[in-house]
Structure formats: structure tokens, C-alpha cells
Amino acid sequence: MNDQNIHEAHESDVTIQEAQTVKVGVGGSNLGTPAAIIAGAAIIAAALYFGLQGSSGLPTGSGTPVAPGAPSAPTEPVDVSAGDLVLGDASAPVLIVEWADFQCPFCGRLHETVFLPVREQYIASGQVRWAYRDFAFLGQESVDAAMAARCANEQGKFWTYHDNLFENQAGENQNAFSRDNLKRFARELGLDTAQFNTCLDSDKYEDAVMADTNAGRDVGVSGTPTTFVNGRMLSGAQPLANFTKVIDEELNK
């Protein structure tokens, strides 16, 4: 599929060790079994409470790491711009703007369980436009992947490359999105590799990626994925039904 008609944002996987693996020592010895369970549960509860409340921890209820400098999430619809990477009919009545990180596992889940069905049901029918905006904050591979997708966009292949990145996630900063792999993806997708490689090596789109990330913070994005449906924020990889409910409400206005 050619993306010539394209106008061009992590919810981290928060893992808490299971209670039976938590060991709390007193004076060099492990606690007895009942006390260990109680103490372990108390430590987990305290970690969750302070982690959720701390400025460098998790925002309350979302399980998403807070991005430095992000304001509080808006409670009312906000005015968000589509940016440069937009899929769908320009006259579609519903605009979905997603801030995501290509390394974010929950962004990968949103891609598979929400974006693909919405593309088939709503975007293809001209009812919805979907805008992708970068919120690249998980490391250098996030920035490199975002720049690579924009390099692919020069050849009308942003969405093809976008899909390929999410399909090839393999952990954060584990070389899944090394420069060599990003170039390999371009070759496998049939892009002009000389043009793509020159673009990527030049860091041509680094400022654009950072500008998108900062724009997300300005409208309340503190982690990924964060999605706005006609300005109504949905945080995290919520079920498809949550999205279709809001989409249908907007279509029926």
C-alpha cells in the first residue's frame, strides 16, 4: 500500500514481583512465612503508593511513567493539532491524535487492538482521521525509530514503516531499533535505501521528533500511548470498545 495520500504518540510495562518471590530479611535472616507475606505486601503497597504519588513515579491510576515537565492531564476536551502524519480523509468528522513511542509495548498493543480495527472500520469509510505524533522518551532507539519513520514518509511509506516498527518490537533499547535494523527494515519494505540511509544518518528529523514530544507535554501527555478523540483524552492502551464508544458519540453529535 502506498502512503502518498498521507499528510503526515508508553505506557511502560509496570512489573511487580509476585509476593512469593519477595524476601525481607531481618538481622540477616528471612522472616517466617506469615510475617514475610505481611511484610512483603506492605512493601509492595508502600511502593505503589509513593510511586504513584511521586513526581518521578507513576501518575495516579494510569500505570504510565511520568514524563519530565508534563502538566496535569486535562479533564475537558482540549484543542490538539494533527501534526504532519495523518491517515484518512481530510474531511472526516472525527480526528484521533495519538502520541506514542515506537518502543512502548502498550503502544504496540494499541496498534494491534485499536488502530488496525479503527483503520478498517472507520478510517477506510471516511469517518475518522488518525494522526500519529511522536512522544519519544524511552531512549535513543525511540528517537532513531521516530526519525526513520519520517525518513520513510519522504517516500510515501510512513504508515507502512510505522506498522513494521510496531510489529518488530523486542524490548526497550535492546538493539531492536538499531540503525542497522532500521535500514534493514527500509530495504525489506522496498524503499530507496540510498535516500533513506542518507536521511537517517543525517538526523534530519531529530528536531521534528523533539518538537512533537514537547507538543504532547503541552497538552497534558505524560506517558504513552495517549490518544485524543476530537480532543477527548484516552490514556493508555484501553480496549477497542472504549474507543468506538467515544468515536460513535462524536459521529452522532
User: How would you describe the shape?
Assistant: globular
What pattern of helices and strands is seen along the backbone? EEHEEHEHHHHHEEH
CATH topology description of the largest domain = Glutaredoxin
- The CATH class of the largest domain, by name, is Alpha Beta
- Discrete helix count: 8
Number of strands: 7
Radius of gyration over C-alpha positions, nearest whole angstrom? 20 Å
N- to C-terminal distance: 33 Å
| CATH architecture heading of the largest domain | 3-Layer(aba) Sandwich
CATH superfamily of the largest domain: Glutaredoxin
Percentage of β-strand residues = 5-15%
Oligomerization category of the chains in this entry:
single chain
Low-confidence stretches: 4-73
Count of structural domains: 2
Keywords: Disulfide bond, Membrane, Oxidoreductase, Redox-active center, Signal, Transmembrane, Transmembrane helix
GO molecular function, one term: oxidoreductase activity
Transmembrane segments: 31-52
Domain Thioredoxin: 66-252
Architecture overview:
Keywords: Disulfide bond, Membrane, Oxidoreductase, Redox-active center, Signal, Transmembrane, Transmembrane helix. This is Thioredoxin domain-containing protein. InterPro entries: Thioredoxin-like_fold, Thioredoxin-like_sf, Thioredoxin_domain. Belongs to the thioredoxin family. DsbA subfamily. A five-stranded mixed sheet has the order 3-5-4-6-7. It has helices at residues 33-53, 105-123, 140-153, 158-167, 179-188, 193-201, 206-218, 240-251, and strands spanning 25-26, 29-30, 86-87, 94-100, 128-134, 226-229, 232-235. Strand 4, helix 2 (105-123) and strand 5 (128-134) form a beta-alpha-beta unit. The chain is built from eight helices and seven strands; from the N terminus they run ββαββαβαααααββα. Helix 3 packs across helix 6 (193-201). The chain has two domains: 10-63, no CATH class; 86-251, Glutaredoxin (3-Layer(aba) Sandwich), CATH 3.40.30. The protein is of the alpha+beta class.
